[in-house]
Structure formats: structure tokens, C-alpha cells
Amino acid sequence: MVHTGACIANLLGQGGSRKYHLTCNWLRYFKNDRDRRDLITCGCAAGVAAAFRAPVGGVLFALEEAASWWRSALLWRAFFTTAVVAVVLRTLIEFCRSGKCGLFGQGGLIMFDLSSTVATYSSPDLLAIILLGIIGGIFGGLFNFLLDKILRVYSIINERGAPSKILLTIIVSVITSMCSYGLPWLASCTQCPEDAVEQCPTVGRSGNYKNFQCPPGYYNGMASLFFNTNDDAIRNLFSTGTATEYHMSSLFIFFVAIYCLGLVTYGIAVPSGLFIPVILAGATYGRIVGTLLGSISNLDPGLFALLGAASFLGGTMRMTVSVCVILLELTNDLQMLPLVMLVLLISKTIADNFNKGVYDQIVVMKGLPYMEAHAEPYMRHLVAGDVVSGPLITFSGVEKVGDIVTALRITGHNGFPVVDEPPLTEVPELVGLVIRSHLLVLLKGKMFMKEPVKMSGSFVMERFGAFDFAKAGSGKGLKIEDLYFTDEEMQMYVDLHAIANTSPYTVVETMSLAKAALLFRELGLRHLLVVPKTP
């Protein structure tokens, strides 16, 4: 859902799609880096809000995990997005309650209602919760370690092409089916409780008591977990007043199966995530701990299941505030806030001693050039001038067409400094920064001169409109290979003053590298010019 929201936002941010005739003129106002980035952040927030029916949790997820650069305007935009999601979702849920949606049911993750419990807790309860947090941190660190190894193997398999991807997906699907159908045979039948609120054994596709090869009046606890949708399985584990519903052996086997299946399923060629498997595995071992510590703790095993899910989420994803709010919006139980906060902080602290969060690991594995929010310790002993790599390619304010074309062909750089030198100025002078896409638009217009003289900016803007320089969509932009120039044109000149950004961010070469890196990261820059201390 997060990925879907981001994809829709990216489509809007590049002006729609001409291929599918989904374009609107007003969308062109978003065709720049900052607005597209903001739209994608809002799309991520919308995805979480729709999946968990948690609008505030969606905003906090975008802030904590999706956005690398946050500002106040983005906060209310994300909040507005999730508010719209909440209203639309609520309307559709009311419509679906009339039975017109078939198997779609009530939409979103169904609310896990824990409001019937009274969450009063004592010192032994807190000790049990601290233990749960420690277990969550250890399991989360182990999960991330194993996932890292498995994904490296999967990437090798997936690189071999579509047949390998399909075969891997089929193998994992068969293993999943064998576990889901085979493991319930190991569980014994349990007699239906006399005070059961719902029908036992269950008739239909969801419910707490699946019959599965048991005689009438009996149910199979493990089948009740495996043969349900994940949403229903989580709700069954979170349910209160059902302390004796599941055997310990059933819960233990189910936890091992879900933990391992979650590891091998992530990374194959299907749209699956980590949130639900992690919640399901966490809820299972939470219920195990709650049952084992029943003699010293008065808390319901259903509450332990919720806290187990929180601890495993904190141990794998290392998110605190957003996960806390999502779980509170899911369960509709504000009394659990202190316990959820405590268990999340403990599990995150324990897991941080082993490795990074799962999303951070995947960013590193994919080789994405992501900068951490803090400077590395070694940066304090270096200055900005120590890490600039050369030779630097600069353009003069009035540059020969052939030199620009050659520079664009032999480099992959996105930005080039523009420096005026004599005879245009008395001493070398930094004019600004010009980016590749703008250079290509200017070259395509072929506004060339035979002599290197400076032109007025208004003359250039008469030929081009502002939207000619708008950021192109993914894969749609001009490329230097698309342009052709005659030998005569290659010897002509073009004025870059009109399209140069005359106020680029600059630092002096003697500035601390740690400060320069923080400036680059906090301002969300793509280019930072390092200028000499003396001319």
C-alpha cells in the first residue's frame, strides 16, 4: 500500500501519463524536484493510512521513515492527504457493510478492539513487559541479520531473468502451502468452550474455531491460525478472554513457521511487505510469553500479543513514534500507550546493538546513495577541499557549443559550475550553476551566436516558456544522443547566463567536512559548490 501510494504520487508529480492518456495541464505545476518529493512522501502517508485505517500513524510514518527532508508545509499536506483517505475509506466501509462488496468485507485492517480489557498493571507486569521488549529486540536483530543474507542470495537468483524469478516464487508458494496445510495435522483437537461468543466450530472463511478434520463439537487451534486471512489470525491472537484457546505447542509451531515464511517470502517477485508477517509473529510469541507468565502477571494474553507485536516491530523496523500510534489507532485503546511506548523503546535499543533497521539495510544492499542524518566521526578531521574530486568541468558564461556537447557526452554529471573569466570580467567570477536538463533544452532551441558576446536574459526567455524547463517524467527527458549538430554549429557560441542558477549554495574549501555534509543533508541539496578561499 505504501508503494502503491508512492507510485500514484510519482505519476501525478511527472504530469500524469501521456501513454495512458492521463494528463492534466494543472499537473505541470508539480514538475519540479521539491514538489515531486513532497507528493511521494504524502503518497506513502496515504498508503499507511489506508492499510491500517490510521491517518495520524500515516503522517508519522512518512515523517519517521519515508521523508529524508521534512518541513512544516509538508506536515499539513501529509495530514490533509491522510484525512481525505480516512473520509473516503469510512464512506466505502459504510457502503460495503450493506453486503455489496462481495469478499472485500469492511476494508482496511479490521479494528482490533481491546477496549473490553482493563489495563491496570503492577510491578510484576512491568517486569514481564520488559522481558517481552528484550525478546523482541533479540528476535528483531536476528530477523534482520537472516533477511540480509537471504536477500543477497535472492538478488543473485533474480538477476538471471524472469524464469528464475517465477521458479523462486513457485517454490516459496509450494512451501507456504505445504506448511499451511501440513502443520495443522500435528495439532490435537480441542473441545469447543461452552461460553464461546461465536459459533464453534466456525462456519465460513473467518473465525476463531476451525474444524479441520476434527469431530463435531471440536476445533483445531493451529488450523484456526493457518486457515484464516492474516488479518483474522492477528485478531484471533489479540482477542481477550481466550487464554485457553490455543495450546502452547500450536503457538510455538505457528511462530516458527511464520517467522521462517516471513523471511523467505520477502524479496520474491510478489507485492508483499513485512508489516503484517512481523505483527503476526510478534503477536504469537507475545501470547506465548503471556501464557507462560500467567502465574506472575495479571494481564490478559491478548494484551501480551499486542505488546509482542509492538516489540517485534520495534526490533525489526526501529520505528518508535509511528508504530506506537499505528498500534493505538488499530486497537482503539489509549490505556495501552505507556506499555506500548516502553516495549518499543526497549526492543529498539536492544536491536540497535546488533544491526541497523530492515529498511536501512535494504537501502545499503540496493546501493542507493542515501546519506545518514548525522556526520561520520572521521569527517571532523577533514575539510571540504579534501574530498573534491577532479578534474572539474566548468563552463564559461558564453561557451562554445562543441565544448558543452563534448562535456555532456563524456560525463554523467547533472550540474556544471559557470565561471566568467577575462575578457568577459576583470577576474574569474562564479556566475552560478547550470544543470544538464536545462542545457539540453537550450541546445535543442539552437539559439547560437557566431561571436562570444553576452546576451540579455529577456531575449532567451522570449524564445522559451517557463514550462520548457520543467522537470521531465521518468525516462522521458531529453538526452544528448537525441540532438544533432553540424560542424558549423559546433563552432558557434551559446550564452548560459539566462539559465544559470545565480544563487547556488557554496562553502569555502576550508570548511569542516562534517558541517558541509550536514548542510548538504539538512537543506536537501543535490549540488554544493566548494569555492577557493583566495581568488
Could you explain the architecture of this structure?
This protein has 535 residues and is mainly α. It is built from 19 helices and ten strands. The protein has helices at residues 2-13, 33-52, 55-66, 72-96, 123-158, 162-182, 221-226, 230-238, 248-265, 275-292, 301-317, 321-331, 337-352, 358-365, 401-410, 436-445, 457-463, 487-490, 513-522, and strands spanning 16-17, 22-23, 189-191, 218-220, 398-400, 415-420, 429-435, 493-495, 506-508, 529-531. The protein has a two-stranded antiparallel ribbon with strand order 1-2. A two-stranded antiparallel ribbon has the order 3-4. Strand 1 (16-17) and strand 2 (22-23) form a beta hairpin. Helix 1 packs antiparallel against helix 2 (33-52), helix 2 (33-52) runs parallel beside helix 4 (72-96) and helix 5 (123-158) crosses helix 11 (301-317). The longest helix is centred in the first third of the chain and has 36 residues, at 123-158. The protein is elongated. The mean pLDDT is 86. Residues 391-444 form the CBS domain.
Assembly state: single chain
The strands making up the biggest β-sheet line up spatially as: 1-2
Nearest-integer average pLDDT? 86
Compute the separation of the termini in Å.
Answer: 53 Å
Key features?
single chain, 535 residues, mainly alpha, two-stranded antiparallel sheet, 10 strands, 50% helix, 7% strand, ClC, Cl_channel_pln
Helix-strand blueprint:
Blueprint (H helix, E strand, L loop, with lengths): L1 H12 L2 E2 L4 E2 L9 H20 L2 H12 L5 H25 L26 H36 L3 H21 L6 E3 L26 E3 H6 L3 H9 L9 H18 L9 H18 L8 H17 L3 H11 L5 H16 L5 H8 L32 E3 H10 L4 E6 L8 E7 H10 L11 H7 L23 H4 L2 E3 L10 E3 L4 H10 L6 E3 L4
Parallel strand pairs: 9-10
Antiparallel strand pairs: 1-2, 3-4, 5-8, 6-7
Helix pairs in contact: 1-2, 2-3, 2-4, 3-4, 3-12, 5-11, 5-13, 5-14, 6-9, 8-10, 9-10, 10-11, 11-13, 12-13
